[in-house]
Amino acid sequence: MIGAIRALPRTVWLVATISLFNDAASDMIYPLVPLYLASVLMAGPKALGLIEGVAEAVSSLLKLFAGVLADRSGKVRVWVVAGYGVAGFARPLIGITSSWLGVLACRFADRVGKGLRSAPRDALISLSVEPGQRGLAFGFHRAMDNFGAVIGPLMAAALLAAGVGLRHVFLLAIVPALIVLALAFAVPEPEHPAARTKEPVRWTFSGLPPSFRRYLLVLALFTLGNSSNMFLLLRANELGASATRVTLMWALFSLVAAVLSTPLSALSDRWGRARTLGVAWAAYAVAYLVIGLLPGADWALWVAFAGYGVVTAALEGTEKALVADLVPRERIGTAFGWYNLVSGIFLLPASLLFGWLWSTLSPFAAFAFGAGCAFAAAFLLWFWVRKGHDGGHSLP
């Protein structure tokens, strides 16, 4: 495994390093946003659902836009640089907001940056490796991303323990963001077959295989129950965990995901994408049910966060590797644009619905709905997408 990771192209290593620093900056802030909203700005689950849903929905539209235009031009690097730059400067501004609308604006700008970079970055990774390395490459990228998500909360916890206020923690996130921007300028442009100059820009599924379209429909169902992870942090806080403990739980989740992302995603190179992803989605449903049922913030909650990290490690890289397997090389940017659009646009109804179920019924009702969507998606992936691939041939 170590030898295979070392053999990955320089581009993959560079993008993975960028993700490490970017998530360190992002996750200094991310676990503290729901606490900041609740304790400083006096906003509840409905405001959180609106903020996360709107921000992710707009981001998703931009992911398709950037992916299609990257295919059109044959250039992906410019989108990567612009995306990391916008997000890096937007996140720290949360520290100077005085209302939840200000947080919404900052999260909106942050997600705009993510929207500009996500599909071109995923296409860049896919174009830089052989098909048999896709699970490994995306898993390694997610591992470094998650290691950054370990460093960020630990930095935040250390700053809070030292008496630094929430607002100042947000402002200090500018430091790793500047490192990200410097590294982004060093990313080389991959060989990417551009669309013919007279061919119109295609914003539809034209040229994308039926199996990919079925996969997107099932992904939409899974995403409908996959609300913002901020609800997990809010759940931990509701069960009695302090701000410091919440950040440490998030760090534990990220550490487990970081350690296991590479081997579990690489497993899909041998065991099959759909098989691996179906098991991961089913395990996700179980994790949601457990978190929804827990009575308090004791050792079981720590175990639940670690288990959720295992699930996340198995599904993140595998989802993206399956996208690359299902589409032709010249449409890879568009395909990742559609993948990111679907996985993001449904976060708006998912987060709004989750917040409504939480406030109107109970936290367990919200988590149970998410689990039901995940179980249904796993079933359809196994028996509809997998069996229907390429006119009846089974997809591993």
TrEMBL record:
The chain crosses the membrane at residues 143-163, 169-188, 215-236, 248-267, 336-358, 364-385. InterPro entries: MFS, MFS_dom, MFS_trans_sf. The keyword Cell membrane does not apply. Keywords: Membrane, Transmembrane, Transmembrane helix. Residues 12-389 form the Major facilitator superfamily (MFS) profile domain. CDD domains: MFS_MJ1317_like. Signal peptide: none annotated. PROSITE patterns: MFS. This is MFS transporter.
